[in-house]
Amino acid sequence: MASAAKIWENLTPEEHEHQYNPQKACPDFARYRDLREPANQAALAGLVRHADIAYGEHELRTLDIYPAPGAGPRPVHIYLHGGYWRAQDKANYAFIAGMLVEHGITAVIMNYELCPASTLDEVAESALAGVEWVCRNIAGYGGDPRAISLSGHSAGAHLVAEVLAADWSARGIDPECFIGAVAVSGIYDPAPAALTSVNGELHLTPQIIANRNVETRPPLVECPVVVMAGGDEPWHWIDQSFRYSHHLHRHGRQPEVHILPNYNHFNILMPFMQPESPIGAAMLRLARPRQ
Hints:
By secondary structure, this protein is α/β, with parallel strands linked by helices.
């Protein structure tokens, strides 16, 4: 039986670039970073931070820990940034730690290897190595290694899905330590990215695409998952969130799925620091250990 046609197969190159390159769909993307920069600078200046902790030899295998005050081990939340697997830095996402620390949750903002210097296989493996480091070492920073939640945006949402698909028992980690995940505006199958101009930096091959397609690999971590995207994102980008959610359903999971009106791929980062927003509320709710 012939395989079903992919949703992107009949797009023109210009249509494909619009649907699968967020910066083309939202050409004023840079101004949204400017809007959140005051909050980011305030977090960098005002929060206690253990900066640039190495979790491996590569220069990008580093993370920042923002410990929450209070007695006893604190719940831990790991944030994985976007950038289409080839850009951005943890220092630009300190604003996310502000909301978490205020609510008694220790935040970990993580870097990972980037294309083109590393392949997407190496990008994903570095993210998993960073999460493993947190599992093994966060207690030394006042965090609870039995209460780790995650969130990610765009490529970071894909890496959250990589965490959910990883065999943590084989790594000597109890997968029950992961208590919740929030994946926002994610790309979960790398195949359409290979047809964009971004592939000039990603260098995707059929084998790498197959390795990193989290729509075909069963989730091995059992925890609540919330999948979100912006209503102003291109439809094909939104469709990825529905496809990944369907994949979780096929494996017996019950993810929440939300499309947030009036948010594009870049201003959807603002709700990450708003506890009353759907994203902020989900992060806080899933960061609490289940009773």
